[in-house]
């Protein structure tokens, strides 16, 4: 178990944003967290990625309890990708280099790794372009390449394909699926779109009204009875 949480909850704006009794992310798996808008998916992801303090509960990361003193050390073992690429105002290659250098990777190693990840995402030709001038689809490739170049122990993805057009989205879903399989990166993938899941998730957790109401292997969730139930329960309760 790489990430585990017990009795995790967040109160904000006078209400409960999420309340999750048990959560676990196993080493090497891709877990999809699905649910409608406002279910609390992003809030839970931000807490697990240690970007937002919960109101209560415990998070264990690789067996260690998350506390103030280990915040930075834990953050350095994670990478987060949001719907918006949030690229720095430098070149495409500079964005990846900077992320690696900030984490203490030596310059030469960082340069080689940058080239490698630009190639994995088919964007070597963009290396010297200003990152703020490329298209949304290109920017999201850079964003994913930057995150994976860090070789994180855990990768958090929050609706990474939501702003992309259909062909780009499909291409990136299968590309990322391949990469996650090859690298064995432990991943929490948040989406409100069921169609994105079968391509690469091992397990699925369904979130509704701040609670995880169902969990299972993707193959089970996406076949027979469970699929029927899961396809109406979250949205019609
Ligand atoms: N700090 C906060 N203060 C008040 N309300 C908040 C706060 N953070 C989140 N919320 C509310 O909590 C709910 C869950 O938000 P969250 O962004 O986690 O949902 P989500 O499942 O990611 O939705 P989406 O699919 O739209 O991204 C929303 O109603 C949101 O407005
Ligand atoms: Mg969200």
Can you put this structure into words, describing what you see?
The chain has 237 residues and is an alpha/beta fold. It has a domain at 3-77 and 152-236: 3-Layer(aba) Sandwich (Rossmann fold), CATH 3.40.50. Helix content is 37%, strand content 26%. It has 8 helices and 10 strands. It has a 6-stranded mixed beta sheet, sandwiched between helices. Strands 2-1-4-5 form a 4-stranded antiparallel beta sheet, with helices on one face. The two termini are 31 Å apart. Adenosine-5'-triphosphate binds at residues 12-13, 17, 35, 37-43, 192.
What would a concise description of this structure say?
By secondary structure, the chain is α/β, with parallel strands linked by helices. The protein is built from eight helices and ten strands.
Helix content: 25-40%
- The oligomeric state is single chain
| Cα Rg | 18 Å
Number of DSSP helices? 8
Beta-strand content bin: 25-35%
Q: Tally of extended strands?
A: 10
Mean pLDDT, nearest integer?
92
- CATH superfamily annotation of the domain at 3-77 and 152-236: P-loop containing nucleotide triphosphate hydrolases
List the uncertain runs.
Answer: 230-237
Report the structural category. alpha/beta
CATH overall fold name of the domain at 3-77 and 152-236: Rossmann fold
Bound molecules: adenosine-5'-triphosphate, magnesium ion
User: What's the N-to-C terminus distance?
Assistant: 31 Å
Name the helix and strand elements from N-terminus to C-terminus, one letter apiece: EEEHEEHEHHHEHEEEHH
Assign the CATH architecture of the domain at 3-77 and 152-236: 3-Layer(aba) Sandwich
| Name of the CATH first level of the domain at 3-77 and 152-236 | Alpha Beta
The largest sheet is:
6 strands, mixed
Strand order of the largest sheet: 6-7-8-3-9-10
Query: What sort of overall outline do the alpha carbons produce when their principal axes are compared?
Result: globular
């Amino acid at each position: 178990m790489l990430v585990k949480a017990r009795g995790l909850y967040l109160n904000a704006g006078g209400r409960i944003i999420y309340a999750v009794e048990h959560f676990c992310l196993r080493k090497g798996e891709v877990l999809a967290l699905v649910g409608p808008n406002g279910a609390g998916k992003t809030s839970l992801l931000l807490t697990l990625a240690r970007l937002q303090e919960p109101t209560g509960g415990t998070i264990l990361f690789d067996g260690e309890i998350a506390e103030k003193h280990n915040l930075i050390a834990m953050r350095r073992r994670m990478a987060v990708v949001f719907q918006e690429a949030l690229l720095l105002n430098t070149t495409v290659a500079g964005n990846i280099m900077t992320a690696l250098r900030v984490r203490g990777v030596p310059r030469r190693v960082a340069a080689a790794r940058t080239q490698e990840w630009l190639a994995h995402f088919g964007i070597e030709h963009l290396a010297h372009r200003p990152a703020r001038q490329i298209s949304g689809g290109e920017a999201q490739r850079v964003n994913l390449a930057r995150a994976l170049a860090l070789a994180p122990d855990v990768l958090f993805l929050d609706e990474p394909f939501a702003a992309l057009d259909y062909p780009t989205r499909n291409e990136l879903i299968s590309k990322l699926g391949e990469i996650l399989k090859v690298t064995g990166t432990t991943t929490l993938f948040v989406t409100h779109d069921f169609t994105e899941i079968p391509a690469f998730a091992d397990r699925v957790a369904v979130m509704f009204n701040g609670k995880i109401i169902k969990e299972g292997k993707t193959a089970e969730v996406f076949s027979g009875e469970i699929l029927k139930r899961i396809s109406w329960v979250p949205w019609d309760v």
